[in-house]
Amino acid sequence: MSLTLEEILALPGLEEMRLRAGSQNMHRTVRWSYVAENESIGEWVMGGELVFVTGINHPRDEVNLLQLVDDGHTSGIAGLVILTGSAFIQRIPDSVIARAHAYGLPLIEQPYLLKMVIVTHLIGTALVHMAQTKRSRHDIVAQLLSGDYPSLATARQRASHLQLPLDDSRRLVALRLSAVNVLFDRHPPDEAERRLQHIRQAVQDHLDAWNRALPDALPVIVQGDLFIVLLPEHEGIRLQLAELYQQLHAMIGELALFMGMAGAVQGCAGYRQALNQARQALEVAENLRPATGLCDFNELGVLRLLQAIGDRSVIDAFVQQTLGQLIEPRRKHSHSLIDTLDALLQENGNALKTAERLNLHRNTVTQRIQRIEQHSGQSLDDPLFRMNASVALLVWRMNEAQRQERP
């Protein structure tokens, strides 16, 4: 649990503070508060601060306030608070609000009559309390993941006090940055280490914000080089993780990222086993390198066999040989036969259920089955072909790069 800007504005005693811009980023966490006394703030902040501008010790005209917004955006501050009243800064110029809005920088107006000593005391106290709560929440989940806890009863009692929903059905996902050697091959050691730590922090910050928006969220745990999240179990979890992967992929630069997902765990007593499952799936993902970055432990039976094949081109050739003839580039939906074969195998060859799954007419599915057999030269009654097709489709589903070719 972290203290966000939204939570700060909800603190008792701060009701008079008013958000003027940047509402889309009110989820940002505040590292500490800082009162700006100099003309600019660029060299005085490190990122994550809530910066207060009073105008008492330095005149703040429109040009200077615009500069502070620019500095704050560049420095990565959490938000900017401008004190207004009759004495110093009478009002926040519209141009300042517009620029903060364009940056997505949370801009908050505070009346001078609301004393700074009260505001900073309330925020500082809340930050200390939140930090203690966050440490306790992380401690409980980390102990359950490692198996090093006094008793489940004690863990559950602590979790209840801290409002941690431990025993819901969840899927554990372990994420790891890969290709770290590339950084050290391309850059001097000091620069490579700096970039690595910057990327790791960016990934953790993004995961924290992403995870915090989920229902019944548990804290993200960092264990060695692993980032561990425990997600509520639901049907759209793979799509959710695919979107997360795309977001993280945009910020990791020269590195790669892979994810391993455990089978469903029904209670906190299974967290340790779930972490072991996720590690196994992650190992397979790093070897097979699916374009989605994700490997599911529930699919490890066949994937572990494929992982033993040292030459990835052998796997690609098998997929091409099995499914390649089913691609119809001249048709509008060139992969419709592959989708139909996939659905048909998942429905154990039942054409009626396949039609329902694909929202198609039964006759359309029958016609596609005929084309599948014509193009492949195989019969769907042949158990060997069905087995080969199932394995090839498993690899196909992992290879999102091929699926992106779809209209």
Superfamily (CATH H level) name of the largest domain: Reverse transcriptase/Diguanylate cyclase domain
Strand residue content:
5-15%
Structural class: alpha/beta
| Strand arrangement in the largest pleated sheet | 1-5-4-3-2
Mind telling me which CATH architecture of the largest domain this is?
Answer: 2-Layer Sandwich
Task: Encode the helix/strand succession as letters.
Answer: HEEEHEHEHHEHHEEHEHEHHHHHHH
| Broad CATH class of the largest domain | Alpha Beta
User: How many strands appear in the DSSP assignment?
Assistant: 10
> Quick check: average pLDDT?
88
CATH topology of the largest domain: Alpha-Beta Plaits
Radius of gyration: 27 Å
**Unreliable residue stretches:** 400-407
Helix amount, in percent?
40-55%
Reported for the largest beta sheet, the result is: 5 strands, mixed
* Number of spatially distinct domains: 3
Domain PucR C-terminal helix-turn-helix: 337-394
Family: Belongs to the CdaR family.
Domain Purine catabolism PurC-like: 7-126
Organism: Pseudomonas saxonica
